[in-house]
Amino acid sequence: MKLQTPTGFHRRILAEAWTLARQRKPLWAFGFLAGILLSGAVVEPLLGSLGGLGRQAGFWSQALLAEPGNWLAGAGAAIALACQENPAFAKLWVALGTAIAVAAVVLSLAFQGALFAGLSAKKPISLHEALQAGWPHAWELGVLNVLSRVFQALLFLLALLPVVLYLLRPGVLETFAACLALLLYVPLSLAVRTVVMLAAARLVRGKKTDVFSALTASARFFRVHWLAAFETAFVSFGASLVACAAFLVGLGVLAVPFVFAWAALGAGTWAAGAAFVTALATVAGAFATVAFFGWLTSFRYAVWLRFYDRASHPLLAPRIVAKLKRLFHPLHVR
């Protein structure tokens, strides 16, 4: 007997996430800063880390092959440059930078919880209510973010070492080790990011659980629906690319009147008018960019929330079969 599965699983998730993010526009204010630490993206950070892996491997291979004197000369130059700075001025900048970084992290964690809470609510709630519901989970989300970055750093290091060894001494064994490290790094990195997103959703959904319980429960959940979760990550990535392309096109169209106005005022040698148009265009572009990325983060969060809801539903979950499995497994072909 063939297993009956709902059609358009990912289409429904995207449609519901689109509707949820569009209907709750005030939450976009949380989305921009919440995306600093946990953007809701899974594939995009992996692509960035693969590029960083190549750069780091090239840097360390060249550094290890260089003469030790070059390291000492570079370190000496850095120390000499640091000694030339005014100590009081340097301390002021360090203290100011640290305070801004700490405030950004705290706000990002609070806004993460508020965004999850606002999107999870059965009906639209105010920004104050969303912040009140998400703020108690800021500490838990902070621990979750730290653990995520520790896991990602360990995976990155374990993948980096064989690649550096291959660049230093290319051979059959080194080539095999580097290829194996990259092949393992990609799915493991995707899995860690996906489990973290599901654990964050579980923490803020009102369920009384701690970080460790949320991670273990999400890991068990991922073990059952790992292929559908990977598909959701790539579908979300594709939808984000389409949205970014549409945003750039729209931004270009909206910039046309400003360009014509700036050219007309500049040709008329009215410098003050041209400067005003430039400032207005800059402010409008910045506002549109912040609003778009706030929406994009809200949309990504909504995608994972809808995936979690459907995949954990007692009636829908047994019927969910990944698209690839339906395509290639005879039991799921209609």
Instruction: Output the helix-strand order.
Output: HHHHHHHHHHHH
| Helix run count | 12
- Percent range for β-strand residues: under 5%
Helical percentage: over 70%
Query: How many strand elements?
Result: 0
Q: Label the structural class.
A: mainly alpha
Q: Mean pLDDT, rounded to whole units?
A: 79
Model regions low in confidence, pLDDT < 50 over at least 5 residues:
1-7
Overall geometry comes to: globular
Radius of gyration: 24 Å
Could you give a short account of the major beta sheet? none
The N- to C-terminal Cα distance equals 10 Å
How many domains would you count in the coordinates?
A: 1
Describe the structure.
This protein has helices at 9-23, 28-34, 43-65, 68-84, 87-120, 127-134, 138-168, 172-204, 211-224, 226-267, 271-311, 323-328. The chain is an all-alpha fold. It has one domain (9-332). It starts with 8 loop residues before the first helix and ends in a 6-residue tail after the last helix.
Features of the shown structure:
334 residues, mainly alpha, 12 helices, globular, disordered N terminus
Concise structural overview:
This protein is mostly helical and 334 residues long. Helix content is 81%, strand content 0%.
Architecture blueprint of SSEs:
Blueprint: H1 9-23, H2 28-34, H3 43-65, H4 68-84, H5 87-120, H6 127-134, H7 138-168, H8 172-204, H9 211-224, H10 226-267, H11 271-311, H12 323-328
